[in-house]
Specification:
single chain, alpha+beta, Dna Ligase, domain 1, 2 domains, three-stranded antiparallel sheet, three-stranded mixed sheet, globular, disordered N terminus
Length: about 150
């Protein structure tokens, strides 16, 4: 089936998301947002640098782009148990409303195909901003030699 020629290219749609925040859609912002959109798991700064490869931004620019994406609400930033910051697409993307599993051996983070549990009832006057559930243990690859 032929593609719809009037449909925006993925990078055009991401540029529009960036412009909707009132900011310029720079090539660096688009490239990093593209990467976060396609990532199956949250990525560290180092993961992003490696994934960008020869098209990599300098370290400072990448930090600034990631900070801007978080400040603008397009990405989320969470520290794992090793205190490594990991970035993912914000609500409405692939990293919203599910559970993460963090391997204590290799440090990788896996998105589980399970909805996050309901938060507990809060006392009067409390307002929940967000709820996260991170499980930790050993992934299948790290357990392969320990049967």
């Amino acid at each position: 089936m032929p593609e719809n020629p009037s449909a925006p290219a993925p990078s055009d749609a991401l540029a529009e998301r960036i412009r909707a925040t009132g900011a310029r859609a720079t090539p660096a912002r688009i490239r990093v947002l593209e990467l976060l959109t396609a990532a199956p798991t949250p990525l560290s700064h180092q993961d992003i640098e490696g994934a960008l490869g020869s098209a990599s931004l300098d370290r400072v620019t990448l930090y600034r782009v990631l900070d801007w994406l978080v400040e603008s609400g397009l990405a989320v930033k969470r520290a794992d148990e090793r205190r490594v910051w990991r970035f993912a697409l914000a609500a409405g993307g692939t990293h919203h409303g599910h559970v993460h599993f963090r391997c204590e051996t290799c440090g990788r983070v896996f998105c589980l195909d399970a909805p996050a549990p309901r938060p507990p009832k809060l006392p009067g006057g409390f307002t929940l901003a967000r709820a996260e559930l991170d499980l930790s243990g050993r992934c299948a690859e790290c357990n392969a030699g320990n049967v």
